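Narrative of accomplishments. A recurring question from our advisory board has been how the design workflow behaves on a single, concrete structure rather than in aggregate. To address it, we present the structure tokens for one chain from the evaluation set, followed by the sequence designed for it. No filtering or post-editing was applied between the two.
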């Protein structure tokens, strides 16, 4: 059995306070899914947006597959996310009302072998919130260090 693929967007939880999470399917080509299975995904400045009632992900960099040949792909093309209509409508209204944004949190391969994207509805953190996150992370590290001694 192949190794599990779970690629996390670490800066997203630092930059945004995540209020809600969803798992969505993603439409990929053959060379893209092979690159995802090899772990060649980067989240630099990626975000999700609505276009004609559909959710799309932009700036998700999936590196070109080495053995793709002529059937390669554009590494930063916009990719469609697959969600139920009810979920799409619910998140679209929340994004319009409160000024929230949808950020990708992780890309993974599920048990059935399909590529999925975990997305989160987040609100941007202020500088003092980020400092609080750093302090909390340091405290947790210190607690863990002391617990390992005993």
């Amino acid at each position: 059995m192949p190794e599990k693929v779970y690629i996390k967007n670490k800066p997203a939880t630092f930059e945004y306070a995540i209020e809600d999470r969803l798992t969505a399917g993603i439409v990929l080509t053959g060379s893209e899914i092979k690159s995802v299975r090899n772990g060649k995904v980067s989240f630099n400045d990626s975000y999700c947006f609505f276009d004609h009632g559909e959710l799309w992900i932009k700036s998700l960099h999936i590196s070109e597959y080495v053995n793709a040949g002529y059937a390669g792909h554009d590494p930063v093309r916009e990719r469609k996310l697959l969600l139920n209509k009810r979920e799409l409508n619910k998140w679209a209204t929340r994004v319009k009302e409160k000024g929230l944004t949808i950020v990708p949190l992780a890309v993974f391969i599920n048990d059935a072998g399909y590529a999925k994207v975990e997305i989160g509805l987040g609100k941007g953190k202020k500088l003092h919130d980020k400092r609080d996150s750093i302090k909390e992370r340091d405290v947790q590290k210190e607690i863990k260090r002391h617990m390992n001694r005993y």
